[in-house]
Amino acid sequence: MNTTTLYLHIPYCKQACHYCDFHFSTQRSTEAAVLEAMHAEIATRAQQEPWKNSRINSLYFGGGTPSFLSANKLAQLISTAQALFSFNADAEITLEANPDDITPENLEAWHRIGITRLSIGLQSFDNHELQSMNRAHDASHSVQCLEWIADGPIQNYSVDFMYGMPGSTVESWKRQLDQLATYLPPHLSCYALTVEEKTVLYHDVRSGKITMPADEVIVAQFEALRAWALVQGYTHYELSNFAQPDKYSRHNSHYWSGQSYLGIGPGAHSFDGEKRWWNISNNTLYAQRAAVPSEKLTLIDLLNERLMVRLRTAKGFLWKSDVPVGLDQALLDTVKQSVQKSSAKGLLKSTEVGFNIPPEYWMQSDAIIAELFLSPDAD
Ligand code: SF4
User: Fold this and answer.
1) Omega prior to 64 cis, within 30 of 0
2) Residues 334-362: tens digit of each pLDDT
């Protein structure tokens, strides 16, 4: 039986962070109807291939802010999923939680309902950075939640942390990493703050109210992060992800492997191995069971997607397992030539079994990967 992953999108947040372009709402009036539709969607998808005959290896509550939902409602979703899908005995159940929702009582409640891993939206220890991004927590929450987790029942957790924050320097970033070293979370996801259109941050940057750090500062922060993480015993296994031994994110690793995944809830995406689809990013219309558009991926789309996700990982792209079955030999030869060219420039490290991007070039990975893409019309 194949293994797969289940993602449940909880589209509610206490307040809107200024950089965020995920699907969420600060209005909870649709909550009951959305949850009802999610239970129904789980029931429908559980009857369909490939999930009918797959085992769930990881269930992930993302959002939005899933920790905003009561433990009782989270438990009901877990029960529905466990009743309708086959779960591996050691399946990981991850809850994204914001620091201001983390209390000793909630940690106990989440443990009781079967949550085995937390992903904490900590982002920073700096009050000014947290306030300027309109996060719902402050620096004292950032510290307090890590202390409660250290004494709590869920010891497997990941911390989301952000560099490239307005006003930050390489030195201020190193101070934040020093503070994180006190706790050494089992897993770290560190992202450079990006300015997405239609966000408050985008308008603040355009109007000159906020100035982003220079690119060289962001690259130096990334390099400082990588050096710090290696000294602290982390494996840098993907552009933005670092794990202590055996603490890799099962859920993300599954995405990067190119296998099927199922997303439930408003805005969630799914892929069944050939076709992908996405639920509408609107809570009211999702609750009314709006139509779900889908597209079938060509072999070229599949190859380009695998290049995109695999080359952000340390493992890289493997010729034997990552080339889509049935891809035309002439197209494969074109990719091999591009790989040779980039390898000659030192931008790829190539062996007989595959190729990867050396970590010192990971910050340029988008441009390096784009050179390898096949044109959608190449067929
Ligand atoms: S809590 Fe997360 S999902 Fe909600 S607005 Fe902030 S970044 Fe976006």
Assistant:
1) yes
2) 999 999 999 999 999 999 999 999 998 99
d(CA 90, CA 226): 31
Residues 146, 151, 154: CA angle, nearest 5 degrees: 80
Q: Apex CA 36: angle with CA 35 and CA 41, to 5°? A: 95
For ligand 1, atom 3, which residue shows the shortest CA distance?
64
pTM for this model (two decimals): 0.94
CA angle 242, 243, 249 (to 5 degrees): 95
Q: Please tell me the distance from the alpha carbon of residue 362 to that of residue 313, in angstroms, as a whole number.
A: 9
pLDDT band for 106, please (50, 70, 90 cuts): very high
Residues 195/204, Cβ–Cβ less than 8 Å: no
* Phi, psi (rounded to 5 degrees) for 265: 110, 165
* Cα(361)–Cα(369) distance, integer angstroms: 11
For 170-220, the pLDDT digits (tens) are 999 999 999 999 999 999 999 999 999 999 999 999 999 999 999 999 999
Query: How far, in Å, from the CA of 85 to the mean position of ligand 1?
Result: 29
Ordered DSSP codes for 34-93: HHHHHHHHHHHHHTSTTGGGEEEEEEEEEES-GGGS-HHHHHHHHHHHHHHSEEEEEEEE
Residues 6 or more apart whose Cβ sits within 8 Å of residue 265: 7, 8, 9, 10, 11, 34, 38, 41, 279, 286
Residue whose CA is at the smallest distance from ligand 1 atom 8: 20
- Residue located nearest, by CA, to atom 7 of ligand 1: 20
Q: Is 335 helix (H, G, I), strand (E, B) or coil?
A: helix
Rg value, the chain, Cα = 21
Tokens of 172: 């201020």
Determine the Cα–Cα distance for residues 304 and 302; give it in Å rounded to an integer: 6
Contact residues for 53 (Cβ-Cβ < 8 A; gap 6+):
1, 2
Using a 10 angstrom Cβ sphere, with 0-12 exposed, 13-18 middle and 19 or more buried, the burial of residue 32 is exposed
Distance between Cα 93 and ligand 1 center (Å):
20
